[in-house]
Design goal:
Elements (H helix, E strand, L loop, with lengths): L2 H29 L6 H8 L3 H7 L3 H26 L4 H12 L7 H12 L1 H32 L8 H22 L5 H15 L24 E5 L5 H14 L6 H14 L3 E7 L4 E12 L4 E11 L8 H15 L5 E3 L6 H9 L17
Parallel strand pairs: 4-5
Antiparallel strand pairs: 1-2, 2-3, 3-4
Helix pairs in contact: 1-2, 1-4, 1-6, 4-5, 4-7, 5-7, 6-7, 6-8, 7-8, 8-9, 10-11
Length: about 375
């Protein structure tokens, strides 16, 4: 085998292993450790049980590899945050909190894996073996930072650094448990506010009182007229094309405002799609959804493909995406469509949670194939 082919083969195997680890997280989140089987993991991954055994010798090996992956990811995120933060202990402790709240690190499936291993008796030894040294390292860092902060305030005669470090880590543990139970609805901005408020209350000489996050993050709704959903017309082209360009960048395409304006302009002018635009009370565009009409031969009826949904980063978790999805459903029902189809990335768990909450069901009976045409 040539070096090139060997490299491609290794890359494929690496990607398959990553896919299986991701599927294991989903399966643990859904079934727990005690009811987990290779068949369930393979089903989530869309692979056969034999494929799983090809990459991992046993279920236990795959489970331990998954926990190791999460432990290394978390430790790397902590190290990176501390390395890039200012050396002052206040900035270092803030960076530790921020890293511990990172959405990529604390997404609900990963929380489920952590707590599954930590809570089930037969898995505790495995957890300690893989994560024990890491837990001690992070606690020692927290202890050192608390000690430095206490000395900066001249409070070492009546403040105990170990007690403070336990409080900090206890707060992080409590936040992680809340994320586990709340899932994608968890408000990390509120958690950040609570964390910084705690630090300001125990180390007031080093941390300012944080501003409340609630004044500018109230939920928006069509019912109370804080949000309007309109069908995009020619006059909305600048706003929609701006959001569409950001949407493409989210999927790692380079910024291209000219392409975005032409594509959206053609869609509106030629009525190739239906686009709904979310506007706030001041008429500022917050997000959009775009659907394309199609026909189902089996049902002998029309259906819609919901291809694009995007909400500006500054307005997420305020009800905009749900309002756009509701409007799309109303339009589909009005046109007597038999269904709405959509796709989303396998790791876009927030979007998946929204779709499933709205009644969308994940397709498992069919494979999707694509042929790239240059």
């Amino acid at each position: 085998m040539s070096n090139k082919k060997a490299g491609i083969s290794r890359a494929i195997q690496k990607e398959r292993r990553r896919l299986l680890i991701d599927a294991t997280m989903s399966a643990i989140s859904e079934h727990g450790l005690s009811k987990l089987t290779l068949a369930k993991i393979a089903g989530v991954a869309g692979l056969s049980a034999g494929s799983v055994n090809f990459h991992f010798s046993s279920k236990e090996t795959l489970l331990l590899e998954t926990l190791t992956y999460l432990a290394e990811e978390f430790e790397q995120r902590i190290d990176q945050a501390l390395e890039t933060a200012e050396p002052h202990p206040a900035q270092q402790l803030t960076a530790l909190f921020e890293a511990s709240l990172d959405p990529d690190i604390t997404e609900p499936r990963k929380m489920a894996v952590w707590y599954a291993f930590a809570s089930e008796a037969r898995a505790r030894d495995d957890y300690q073996r893989i994560c024990g040294a890491q837990d001690k390292k992070i606690f020692d860092i927290t202890l050192q930072l608390c000690d430095e902060l206490i000395r900066l305030g001249g409070k070492q005669d009546y403040m105990n650094a170990r007690a403070m470090a336990n409080s900090v880590q206890g707060l992080i543990d409590e936040i992680w448990q809340e994320i586990l139970y709340a899932g994608d609805d968890y408000d990390r901005e509120d958690a950040r506010f609570i964390s910084l408020s705690f630090l300001a209350s125990v180390f007031p000489w080093a941390f300012p009182t944080p501003p409340s996050p609630f004044e500018h993050r109230s939920r928006l709704a069509v019912k109370d007229k804080t949000l309007r959903i309109v069908r995009a017309e020619k006059e909305h082209l600048p706003a929609v094309s701006r959001l569409f360009d950001l949407y493409r960048q989210f999927y790692e395409e380079p910024a291209d405002p000219r392409l975005a304006r032409k594509f959206i302009g053609d869609n509106i002018r030629k009525q190739r799609s239906v686009i709904f635009l979310a506007l706030d009370e001041d008429g500022e565009a917050l997000g959009f959804v775009q659907l394309y009409p199609d026909w189902c031969s089996v049902a002998a009826a029309p259906f819609w493909t919901l291809y694009d949904l995007y909400v500006d980063q500054t307005t997420r978790q305020r009800g905009v995406g749900r309002a756009l999805m509701d409007q799309a459903e109303k339009m589909a029902r009005k046109t007597r469509a038999c269904r709405i189809d959509l796709e989303t990335a396998g790791d876009n768990h927030k979007a998946q949670a929204l779709y499933e909450d709205l009644g969308y069901e994940r397709e498992t009976a069919f494979y999707k194939y694509s042929l790239e045409l240059d």
